[in-house]
Input
Amino acid sequence: MHGRARDPARPDELFFGPFRRMVRAAMVAPREGAQWTGITTRIAERLLETGAVDAVLTMTADPADRWRPVPVLVTRASDMAACRGMRMGYAPLLALLEPALAAGHKRVAIIGIPCQVYALRALEAELGFERLYVIGTPCSDNTTTERFHEFLALLTNAPETVTYLEFLPDFHVEMRFTDGRVKRIPFLRLPISKLPGDFFPLTCRTCVDYTNVLADITVGYMAGRGAQWLLVRNARGEELLSLLGDEVVLSKLSSAGKRHSSVAGYLQNVELAAGGLPVRSMPNWLRPVMAFLMPRVGPRGLEFARTRVEMKAVETVLHLRARHPRRMRNMVPPHVWALAEAYGLRAKEGEK
Ligand SMILES: Cc1cc2nc3c(=O)[nH]c(=O)nc-3n(C[C@H](O)[C@H](O)[C@H](O)COP(=O)(O)OP(=O)(O)OC[C@H]3O[C@@H](n4cnc5c(N)ncnc54)[C@H](O)[C@@H]3O)c2cc1C
Output
């Protein structure tokens, strides 16, 4: 898609895939209902407004459940507002590709998470669109909407009033409620140990494309230190970003802290979990101390994004090894081994 593979001379491409440039970004006027500032849906609106595309394929919310994603083909810019925000769940986004073609849409944009974009790229040539723009978001893990409701019920006794949830890069979960309240919970205080072992499916736990490497532009937040994080991957990605003009403010990314001990500690816990053993939990007295320290001394900015990508690499190797060892040879690409090897996880015979 980008005319080249990851460039070893640009070390961050090992983590995030090929990119022309990475920037910190925010909409000057953040959009109501957006997950962050609404860069993703605004780019799609601009594509429709300028006539660059006939339709945008993305997710909206089920009218009966704000958390349930439903695929939708949007043809009017004003209808993009209803698609803003993150929903947890799976929905067959690409099932609308053929209806889009049948309706005569030749120039199309798609907003998708990595597994959707991966499948899209495999189909792209045979679909024969005149123009296809791909706006990707990163995705760490997904689960069924039902399971997500169970998670919300562990966090609050009024789960039906939650309108927003995000895992922030400052090691907190932010929740917003219908009455305007905002609640922040340190990661270390999340009831993760109460979640069933299969809360996140094996497909997510062994995903090697956290940052949506095949998108033209990836719109995330991990390296953004409170703002958004854009990875412009090719010329089409530049074209997409330019549609925002001065509606978006761009600034330089930064990096602080060290990731090694966070990833190494995570690896130990995943090893226990993948082997079916109880995860070692931190003593209760230490939790508030760590919850205070992590946003201040833990990995931040680009270093936080690298941390998360390495955690996924480690998770992939350990879970596949435990559950489907014979698949490793085909499912773990070389750059993932390179990330995992920094933590002593080396390929065994037949795994590479
Ligand atoms: C399950 C999931 C996990 C994510 N994990 C991360 C992460 O770990 N790190 C990170 O940087 N970013 C992650 N994201 C992306 C992040 O939540 C924001 O969507 C992104 O940063 C864009 O913000 P925005 O304000 O520009 O989006 P908005 O303008 O609000 O647009 C969000 C877009 O995402 C689409 N969308 C919402 N839910 C889904 C879904 N279930 N499947 C497919 N598309 C959907 C919407 O239809 C909309 O087009 C995740 C997204 C999802 C759906």
